[in-house]
Amino acid sequence: MSAQPLDGITVVALEQAVAAPYATRQLADLGARVLKVERPGRGDFARDYDRQVKGASAYFIWINRGKESVVLDIKDGADRALLDKLLARADVFVHNLAPGAVDRLGLGARTLRACHPRLITCAISGYGDSGPYRDKKAYDLLIQCEAGLLSITGSPEAPARPGISVADIAGGMYAYTGILTALYERERTGVGTDLSVSLLDALGEWMGHPYFAQAYGGSPLVRSGARHPSISPYGAYRCGDGAQVFLSVQSDREWVALCERVLVRPELIRDPRFADNPLRRIHDEELTAELEQCFTGHTAEGLVTLLDGAGIANARLRDIAEFAAHPQLDARGRWGEFDSPVGELRGLLPPVEVAGRRAPMRPVPGLGEHTEAVRAEFA
User: Using an 8 Å Cβ cutoff, are 28 and 362 in contact?
Assistant: First the structure.
């Protein structure tokens, strides 16, 4: 196996659920050794979220590839001594325990870094380590509510949860990039640092556009289903065969190309209802009627060909099975195999491609699979 960018980096992760495991899996994909500390009995409770992957949890399989599972009771003296040995040789300590819990366990950032100045610590929480929400329980959908995401997601009639855990993923990605930054800084300074990421802050950063639009535009964005709330035309449009094609016009140049080369309605270019994007968005329902009238003479496949020829961005709405068979992913060899407690599985390679190297795609660990080996190594 070729060398990986983070070979030689050891991460100790006192983690559960999604946000922290997602961050550490990114590090594992780049070659870091991730020692995942799990509680005795059932381990990370994400192992029991579902049974959809040959009896194993799809959540756990997704975000725990490439790690070593070490079962420790950190309130037990011997196990706590082993954890201390792991931390003494670690480069990074990641946790997403409740605020205050690590301090009560004697694992707070100040305590650890007083003993291990090169250690990088990263705490992931729902709302941060201060303020009135500090001790409030935080899960992905609840953070989405508090960050205002659900107020702009869904149809005009009702809000809807996005289909993935966006708050957890946002928090995990900021933890991941923060850790990489801290590792780079340590190369120059020789000392580690303390990082903290709250899910509310992370998702709040992703809410920048709706915040600025409302704070300075005077009116809130409305839930618009699969339509873009600020750009038009941008969304799904019916074709003559009953199927839908998604398309997006991002500039006046593209608007001209759509009118001339696809709609064959050049008079629409300077129609006072559609002369620029703000006007098109105001008159989106009228514009949709114009587009769908023109599209009645096309099948979805034919319209996609026409849009491609005119340089108009477009897409077909694929389900998960169609995504899994996507010709672009197959053509680029973006799928790999990895082992797990339920056998070999197929999954996507990590998004960042490092030239000349292939991601290791190491196994998903069984609960406590590496405990005895780690005990022997760190004895």
Answer: yes
Please tell me which residue in 95, 116, 209, 228 is annotated as part of the active site: 228
Beta bridge partners of 69: 36
Cα Rg, the chain, nearest whole Å: 25
**What DSSP character marks residue 47?**
G
Beta bridge partners of residue 315, listed in sequence order: 246
Tell which phi-psi region holds residue 154, choosing left (phi > 0), alpha (psi between -120 and 50) or beta.
left
Which residues, other chains included, contact 268 with Cβ-Cβ below 8 Å and sequence gap of 6+?
259, 274, 290
Residue 308 CA, distance from chain mean position: 29
pTM greater than the 0.70 cutoff: yes
Instruction: Express each pLDDT in 207-235 by its tens digit.
Output: 999 999 888 987 777 888 788 888 999 99
Question: What distance in Å separates the CA atoms of residue 207 and residue 219, rounded to the nearest whole number?
Answer: 15
For residue 310, with 0-12 CB atoms within 10 Å meaning exposed, 13-18 middle and 19 or more buried, which class applies?
middle
Concatenated DSSP letters of 70-84: EE--TTSHHHHHHHH
Is residue 298 flagged as an active site residue? Answer: no
User: Taking Cα atoms as reference points, which of 370, 368, 364 lies closest to residue 63?
Assistant: 364
Interior angle at CA 77, CA 73 and CA 79, nearest 5: 40
Give the position of tokens 């994400």: 46
Give me the domains of the chain, ranges plus CATH numbers. 10-206+364-377 (3.40.50.10540), 234-315 (3.30.1540.10)
